[in-house]
């Protein structure tokens, strides 16, 4: 993705988030230079990979297959492993109309996916085989707003604003906005986007960036290069 396109997506996403009454934390608006100057104080943000995240899954067609995310807070895997402490994470996502977030699952993360506003969020669901792999012939059980729902393989859930679904590790899912763009909330256990996204197809989690202009704000995938 061109950095100029990423900058445009950031600004449009911030506008949409504000339209629904959410305001991102102050570090979201730091310039790269401010982040460098304050990186010691912001070490927890950097290590937890909180912040802006835009992906086209390496396919080079963001409008067709892509996702905007902002990680607001993220816990520590060590706390999760010992069973106490900061074991949770929270994100805001924007799923554009007909923009696919492709079929994937998680090994560790359980998550509530919440339609925070906009159009309908469609989620396609499959179960796992005995090894946790994608199983085209298996359904399962999820909870929608706390109410049990059994689903058939490939069934599509339609979440209106205010509705949610709880997905457990091994629940395979893909999603997109239907009828318009959707502001999505995600509340989950500790999030690790580098190792805990298992895709059905061999695709990448992060975009390859063409630096045609300077970044307006750093993405989480920029932290290692820009901040060390």
From TrEMBL:
Organism: Primorskyibacter flagellatus
GO MF term set: D-lyxose ketol-isomerase activity; metal ion binding
Keywords: Carbohydrate metabolism, Isomerase, Manganese, Metal-binding
Entry's EC annotation: 5.3.1.15
Domain of life of the source: Bacteria
InterPro entries: D-lyxose_isomer, EcSI_cupin, RmlC-like_jellyroll
Family, similarity comment: Belongs to the D-lyxose ketol-isomerase family.
Pfam families assigned: Lyx_isomer
Cofactor field: Mn(2+)
Protein name from the UniProt record: D-lyxose ketol-isomerase
Reactions the enzyme catalyzes: D-lyxose = D-xylulose
Organismal lineage: Bacteria, Pseudomonadati, Pseudomonadota, Alphaproteobacteria, Rhodobacterales
């Amino acid at each position: 993705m061109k950095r100029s396109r990423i900058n445009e997506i950031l600004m449009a996403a911030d506008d949409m988030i504000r339209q629904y009454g959410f305001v991102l934390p102050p570090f979201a608006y730091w310039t790269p230079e401010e982040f460098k100057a304050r990186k010691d104080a912001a070490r927890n943000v950097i290590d937890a990979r909180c912040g802006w995240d835009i992906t086209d899954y390496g396919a080079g067609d963001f409008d067709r297959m892509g996702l905007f995310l902002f990680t607001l807070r993220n816990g520590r895997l060590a706390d999760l492993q010992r069973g106490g402490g900061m074991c949770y994470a929270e994100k805001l996502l924007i799923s554009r109309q007909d923009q696919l977030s492709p079929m994937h699952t998680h090994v560790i993360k359980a998550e509530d996916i919440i339609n925070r506003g906009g159009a309908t969020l469609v989620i396609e669901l499959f179960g796992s085989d005995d090894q946790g792999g994608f199983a085209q012939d298996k359904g399962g059980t999820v909870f929608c707003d706390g109410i049990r729902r059994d689903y058939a393989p490939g069934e599509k859930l339609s979440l209106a604003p205010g509705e949610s679904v709880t997905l457990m590790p091994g629940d395979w899912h893909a999603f997109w906005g239907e009828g318009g763009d959707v502001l999505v909330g995600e509340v989950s256990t500790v999030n690790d986007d580098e190792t805990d996204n298992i895709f059905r197809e061999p695709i990448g989690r992060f975009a390859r960036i063409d630096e045609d202009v300077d970044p307006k704000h750093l993405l989480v995938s920029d932290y290692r290069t820009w901040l060390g």
